[in-house]
Structures are given as structure tokens and as C-alpha cells.
Amino acid sequence: MGEYHGIIVNLSQKDRSIFRDLNVIGRKKIFFGLIILYKIRVAPDDLDTLILRIQSNMADNVLFLHKVFYCHLYRGDELVIVFRNKLFHVKPASKSWSEAIDYGRSLGIPVDQLDFSPCRFEDEIY
Description:
Blueprint: E1 4-9, H1 18-21, E2 23-30, E3 35-42, H2 47-57, E4 61-62, E5 65-66, E6 70-75, E7 78-83, E8 87-90, H3 98-106
Antiparallel strand pairs: 1-3, 1-6, 2-3, 4-5, 6-7, 7-8
């Protein structure tokens, strides 16, 4: 099976130079360019190393406000949701996300921000 794609928010990483080392295949700026969504490509052999790197670099505040982040990576029928201290391996179908959503909510992430889309190559728009 092929590569993984993923979505990572610029503000989620303490050291933003990490994005220079990633295989970025798309960028989407929102909120007047303050937030950048990076779409990345990851080889299967590099997935575990990348996840550990992202987790260890996750920010826990933005402008002195406590903030919890996550990212997600996907390929085929796999969706990997990455929080700082926990991983979820689920399917692209949203009905499989309930445990990850509950975990994110327990960390204070609003439910409307726990949308793991796109989670299939077919859903990508950038």
C-alpha cells in the first residue's frame, strides 16, 4: 500500500522549523493567514518516527492560552489520530471516531474541532 497523507496545523508545533523537514504537498491559510494547515506526505516506513517527532513537538499553548492539539494521517482504510500522549487507529468512517472524539473532549477540545477530515485521498481539496 502507498504513502500516508496528513494534516498538521502550524500552531500545533512548538518548533515550526519541523515543517521544513516534512514532505509538504499543500498549504491552506485560514484566519487571515495566522493559521496554516499543512498537508504532508509520509512513507509507511517513516510513519512511526514522524508520529513520535510530532508528539514530542506539540505545543500546549498559543499566546499564553492553554491549547490542546492533534493531527491526523490517513491512507486507504486507515486513519491515525495523533494526540500528544495517545494514538487512535480508526477507519475513515466517522462512526469509528467516537473514542478519539471522547478523548479529545476530555482534553478540552470542542467537539466541532474534532473533525478528522479529509481522511481519504478522495476527499482532499488542496
